[in-house]
Amino acid sequence: MTNAIEKLNNWYQAQCNGDWEHSYGVKIDTLDNPGWLVKIDLIDTALDSKGFSEIAQGIEGSSHLEAADWLHCYVSDRQFVGAGDPSKLENIIKVFVDWAA
Prior knowledge:
The protein has one domain: Gyrase A, domain 2, CATH 3.30.1360. It is an alpha+beta fold and 101 residues long. Helix 1 crosses helix 3 (89-100). The protein contains three helices and five strands, in the order H-H-E-E-E-E-E-H. A hairpin with a 2-residue loop joins strand 4 and strand 5.
């Protein structure tokens, strides 16, 4: 069985065509609230026009930034964006790779 990181790695490698990887890619960063932020460029990929239903768990109002259990994934400006509390990195990546499959 392939885990979420392996699936993301495979998806990324499939996008690398000599051009795409020079302008686009995958960024994983931390948030100071604390939490994770994942941004994945969709331009020139099969996902560029694929619909995505926003996931918003535990983010009622603006207080989600201090909540202990939250996850927010959406597509905006041809980019997948996933954010979540410090325990959600694997969840964010899994949301992406499940959608990409």
